[in-house]
Design brief:
By secondary structure, this protein is an all-alpha fold. It is built from three helices and no strands. It has helices at residues 2-26, 31-74, 84-87. α1 (2-26) packs antiparallel against α2. It is rod-shaped and about 95 Å long. The protein starts with a helix and ends in a 9-residue tail after the last helix.
Length: 96
């Protein structure tokens, strides 16, 4: 679930990042918009997407850790008996 969410976000982010350049190619504008505005908007969208990607990954990691803690709290470990020879081992015995 978390991987599909992350992949979907990254696909949408890639489309949003490329939109200023696609709009610049389809709508004929002047040289200022081609060389200044389109790259600036693209870089701003890229920085925002990287920031949001980092926040999404952190929240997914925290959710995964909380889920693992809950699972660990619910499971009980079985008592393991020590081997028979180890139970009778003393400092006076020859089993070492």
């Amino acid at each position: 679930m978390s991987q599909t969410l992350l992949i979907a976000y990254r696909l949408v982010a890639a489309l949003v990042i490329s939109m200023p350049l696609i709009i610049n190619l389809t709508i004929k504008g002047d040289i200022v918009s081609s060389f200044i505005y389109a790259p600036i908007f693209t870089i701003l969208a890229l920085v925002l997407a990287v920031y949001l990607d980092d926040k999404i990954e952190q929240s997914l990691q925290q959710a995964k850790l909380r889920l693992n803690v809950r699972k660990a709290a619910k499971t009980t470990s079985a008592k393991v008996k020590t081997p028979l020879l180890a139970r009778f081992r003393t400092e006076y015995c020859c089993f070492k």
